[in-house]
Design goal:
The complex is a heterotrimer of chains A (294), B (277) and C (277). Chain A is mainly alpha-helical and 294 residues long. Chain A has helices at residues 2-44, 53-56, 70-101, 104-118, 122-140, 147-172, 175-183, 188-199, 201-217, 220-225, 243-251, 257-292, and strands spanning 60-61, 66-67. In chain A, strands 1-2 form a two-stranded antiparallel sheet. In chain A, helix 3 runs antiparallel to helix 9, helix 4 (104-118) packs across helix 6 and helix 11 packs antiparallel against helix 12. The longest helix of chain A is centred in the N-terminal third of the chain and has 43 residues, at 2-44. Chain B is an all-alpha fold and 277 residues long. Chain B has one domain (36-276): Orthogonal Bundle (MetI-like fold). Helix content of chain B is 74%, strand content 1%. A two-stranded antiparallel sheet of chain B has the order 1-2. With 277 residues, chain C is an alpha/beta fold. Chain C has ten helices and nine strands. In chain C, 34% of the residues lie in helices and 21% in strands. The chains are: A mainly alpha (294), B mainly alpha (277), C alpha/beta (277). The interface between A and B is large, with 101 and 99 residues.
């Protein structure tokens, strides 16, 4: 009897392991692809490392041989950071509202709205941004297509992800925690903020990481509203160009070194997400240690 | 008192979110309704998409979704189960898989498109095809689905696992009969987010399933996805805005229908087999 | 379990029933410029309707892709929205349409004409307020196209500028983005395809075309050759075309597709006029 169950379990373990390997293989393939396409750019620059100009040069005029990506790197980070700092409180607040405060019918409607918006193409968000938001910002402060527009549109796009994953995590917290905290006589907001939320932290962090990664990789919507001028993000109302929009704008017309440099920027983005993920894992580990021992 | 401030804050937050999301949606619905008629759903596009309908495009989109979900769902669920139930908590494979998934979630969609084109279309020889596009989509929705399911599975209290062990159930049986049903809300959430990501994808599909708006004859035919059609009409074709909004309206309805279907499917697959006290 | 697997396999084999055929007498593939793609698709559809059994697929990817694919034989025809460069003389181009490039302002802008020198000064940042040109006290929002686009290259060549000299506030990708940007910004100036802009004006979009070097910007003046700034839309092949390829290219250059060219707001090349009634 015991050996039987072990065999089934071992088979399942084997099957699942092979699936995990497929996933790891996928990432390896993508990185390999990016490397092979970006390689000509690195190889063609003299070995004294003029490819490093990607990081410190300020000017992006690839057709004239200038490949400075520094402004775009910072712009990508600025847009993502702005969008997440806007979407996180709003998304979390919506999730808490959805789980604990909303009457059932409204909760259903709200959830439906979030579901639908999770599936709307970026081009629709971009179109709305271009035809409604940008003119609005223009009347306030030209040129309108700006860092602010990109932050707002991106925040709206990742908000459903954060809200839905957070709501799902909050729902997964065992009921006993809520009833227990009620029995202890805690106020509602204390129950939520100090008991439920920490318990759901892992899931919420996971959702935020997904949303941040999505924000970093978002292309079309940002391309349509951010202005796309290559410069350091100097103000909310100034136009910026993010790395993804750069790839989308120029890939179709790029040849040779220019094309390779665009793939290099794709590689850079992947690296950024890796750093982000590593950082999030460290934070998670610290959290877990706190919960367990300290 | 603090309670009232708190709930007031939450309420206004939700209100802000709902009104801004409705603002975006209302544009689609109002402008789309102007151009829409029932023929739109079945006719083929003509005059570069400005006239006619989106019949073949709807078919292509549904095929793409089907391929993507058929590949990504079992694979994703498997990886999630492994991460949650079988992996040692400090195993290198587990943490590197976790990081791989996070990175995959952040790869820009246009890079997925170029990768899909190079790997599925050229290297595997599938060309511009629904299969190529569907497989690329599967790669994109995998991290989302795995992460959400994994979180859901981890959240199931260990008491149940110990109970199953005490009853002498195999790991596999415990997973199938107890844990997956318990993680159902998270799986549904993951499915919905995946469907959302797949329907919303434009750049990746442009390079893999392509631009052809004909009714696909086989999975190896090129087919235009709805999101690609909307992009083409609004950004590339003069005077295509009306049709673009109408297509977006159809897309929104499709998402609602698919979400309802997703909820129903997961509910029936992972039926609660043991009643919770 | 096994039964389901068999059923799935059967379904797949039915679905995958077509092998991919390329460059034979029955099918053609075109890849390249997204500007030409809608026109090419309409021409292809008309050809298909006149010759049942033929299948012509159009895919996007940009002019560079068109050149590359044609050169490497990955596609039958490359769509290129500019004239061939001196380094591309190993390929042959067939002109199918012309596209004028005109300066647009917001409808409410009081300025109605701009000289070449003024345009250069605006785009290099020397003039940055409409007041300096006789308009209101508003800062100029300069809209430029992204690097590599043929529209940009022609603009730069015409005004003998380098892209690094241009000080823009907004950089756009597709024509429609340019139109929507200018229409939403009373201070904006940009340049787009003339045909597109003319059509948008009839729809009531808040833009207006400016004459250039004294010539009014209309499709007609481009057709007659008066207007100074226009680009070629070419079908490019890497060897002398034969068979289906030859027939299709002849068709695309014939007077039979004149109305399709007009419908996409391009300009039929001059030599077609001799055929029309």
């Amino acid at each position: 009897m015991l050996s039987n169950s072990n065999r089934i379990d071992r088979r399942l373990n084997g099957l699942l392991l092979s699936m995990v390997c497929v996933t790891a293989l996928l990432l390896a393939l993508i990185v390999l692809f990016l490397l092979s396409e970006a390689w000509p750019f690195f190889a063609n620059r003299e070995p004294d490392g003029t490819w490093l100009q990607l990081f410190y040069r300020q000017n992006w005029y690839p057709l004239e041989g200038q490949f400075g990506m520094a402004p775009m790197i910072l712009s990508s980070l600025a847009v993502t950071a702005g969008a997440v700092s806007l979407a996180l409180p709003l998304g979390l607040g919506s999730a808490i509202f959805l789980q604990f405060y909303a009457p059932p019918r409204s909760a259903q409607g709200f959830r439906l709205l979030l579901n639908v918006l999770a599936g709307i193409p970026s081009v629709v968000f971009g179109l709305w941004g271009l035809t409604r938001l940008v003119p609005l910002i223009t009347s306030w402060q030209p040129p309108g297509a700006s860092l602010l527009a990109a932050i707002i549109v991106l925040a709206l796009m990742i908000l459903p992800t954060i809200a839905l994953t957070s709501a799902s995590s909050l729902a997964s917290v065992p009921k006993e925690m809520l009833t227990g905290s009620m029995a202890l006589g805690l106020r509602r907001n204390t129950q939520i903020l100090h008991v439920i939320l920490p318990a759901a932290r892992a899931g919420i962090n996971s959702g935020v990481l997904l949303a941040t990664a999505r924000a970093l990789g978002e292309t079309l919507a940002v391309l349509m509203v951010a202005g796309n001028v290559v410069q350091f993000p100097s103000g909310l109302f100034e136009p910026v160009r993010v790395l993804t929009a750069n790839i989308a704008l120029e890939m179709a017309y790029a040849m040779g070194d220019h094309r390779a440099s665009l793939f290099a920027s794709g590689l850079l983005l992947t690296l950024l997400v890796w750093l982000l993920s590593w950082f999030a894992h460290r934070v998670n580990q610290v959290n877990n240690r706190e919960i367990r021992g300290g | 008192m603090a309670d009232r401030i708190f709930s007031g804050l939450l309420f206004s937050c939700a209100l802000l979110v709902v009104s801004s999301l409705l603002w975006v949606l209302s544009d689609v619905v109002l402008q789309g309704a102007v151009h829409f008629n029932w023929q739109f759903l079945f006719a083929a596009p003509s005059n570069a998409g400005r006239d006619g309908g989106i019949g073949p495009i709807l078919v292509s989109t549904l095929w793409l979704l089907l391929i993507a979900l058929t590949v990504a769902l079992p694979l994703g669920l498997g990886v999630a189960i492994w991460l949650s139930e079988f992996a040692q908590s400090n195993s290198r494979l587990a943490s590197s898989t976790g990081i791989s998934l996070d990175i995959l979630a952040g790869v820009p969609s246009i890079v997925y498109g170029l990768f899909g084109n190079a790997f599925f279309s050229i290297y595997l020889g599938l060309g511009f095809s629904l299969l190529s596009g569907g497989l690329t989509l599967a790669c994109m929705i995998l991290p989302v689905f795995v992460r959400t399911c994994e979180v859901g599975l981890r959240a199931v209290t260990d008491d149940w696992r110990r109970g199953a062990l005490a009853l002498g159930m195999t790991r596999s049986a415990a997973i199938w009969h107890i844990l997956l049903p318990a993680a159902r809300p998270a799986i549904v959430a993951g499915l919905i987010l995946s469907i959302g990501r797949a329907t919303a994808e434009t750049a990746a599909l442009l390079f893999t399933s392509g631009y052809v708006d004909r009714m696909p004859g086989s999975l190896l035919d090129s087919g235009r996805a709805l999101a690609v059609h909307i992009y083409d009409l609004s950004m590339n074709i003069t005077g295509g805005d009306g049709a673009a909004y109408a297509s977006a309206l159809v897309l929104v309805t499709l998402i609602i229908a698919l979400n309802t279907l997703a909820q129903g499917l997961v509910d029936s697959w992972f039926k609660q087999r043991l009643k919770i006290a | 379990m096994v039964k389901t697997l068999i059923r799935v396999l059967l379904l797949l084999s039915v679905a995958l029933n077509l092998p991919i055929a390329q460059a034979n007498n029955k099918s053609l593939i075109l890849t390249g410029s997204s500007t030409i793609a809608p026109l090419a698709m309409e021409i292809a559809k008309r050809y298909e309707s006149q010759h049942p059994g033929v299948r012509i697929d159009v895919q996007m990817g940009g002019s560079s892709r068109g050149i590359n694919d044609a050169r490497l034989g990955l596609t039958d025809i490359g769509m290129v929205s500019r004239a061939l460069k001196p380094t591309e003389q190993d390929l042959t181009a067939f002109l199918i349409a012309m596209d004028g490039i005109g300066i647009i302002l917001h409808k409410s802008n009081e300025v109605n004409t701009l000289s070449d020198a003024q345009i250069i000064d605006i785009y290099t940042g020397k003039i940055n307020n409409w007041q300096q040109l006789g308009g209101s006290d508003l800062p100029i929002t300069v809209v430029n196209k992204a690097e590599g686009r043929s529209t940009l290259e022609l603009f730069l060549k015409h005004f003998t500028l380098k892209n690094s000299q241009i000080k823009a506030q907004v950089v756009i990708g597709e024509n429609q983005q340019g139109i929507k940007t200018v229409a939403g910004n009373p201070n904006a100036i940009g340049y787009v395809s003339i045909g597109t802009a003319e059509y948008e004006q009839t729809l009531g979009t808040a833009i207006k075309l400016l004459p250039m070097a004294g010539q009014i910007a209309t499709v007609e003046s481009v057709a007659k050759g008066y207007y100074p700034l226009s680009r070629q839309l070419n079908l490019v092949v890497n060897a002398t075309p034969t068979g289906l390829l030859r027939r299709f290219i002849d068709f695309a250059q014939s007077a039979e597709v004149r109305d399709l060219i007009d419908a996409q707001f391009f300009v039929a090349p001059l030599k077609m006029d001799s055929n029309s009634g």
